[in-house]
């Protein structure tokens, strides 16, 4: 029995391998985005989320799960991004509730995310051939569906 365990990858080994691959790719994405566009990976996710949103605006609470940060961390991220003074974002007060504030993507921000998206996809395609990525994502999606039942 011990020999079977030693010769087959364990669940933990597979998990660590997956985590290592994800970290390596994320670091490569971060380095390319920083070098070419002065964007962190989280800033890119912020711009991408806003670019895909209706009217190109979202409340901070909505951005939390999309960017993978807490509300206070998203707020700090937006504030730091605004402090750069690049004009990619703007804050807009909600007409229905003056206490709520939207973070909105400007046309300059849309242009920035469009350019960065090309680099993002180039890095991913250089790392994983497209067919392999599709197969892997389909397998992960099926796994998620099975676990949800």
Short description, anyone?
With 149 residues, the protein is mainly alpha-helical.
Describe what this molecule looks like in 3D:
The protein is mostly helical and 149 residues long. Helix 3 packs across helix 6 and helix 4 packs across helix 5. The longest helix has 27 residues. The two termini are 32 Å apart. It has a three-stranded antiparallel β-sheet. Strand 2 and strand 3 form a beta hairpin. It is built from seven helices and three strands, in the order H-H-H-E-H-H-E-E-H-H. Helices cover 71% and strands 9% of the residues. The N terminus is likely disordered.
Structural class: mainly alpha
The ordered string of helix (H) and strand (E) elements is HHHEHHEEHH
What portion of residues is helical?
A: over 70%
User: In which order are the strands of the major sheet placed?
Assistant: 1-3-2
Estimate the mean pLDDT confidence: 86
Determine the N-to-C terminus distance: 32 Å
Beta-strand portion reads: 5-15%
What is the radius of gyration? 19 Å
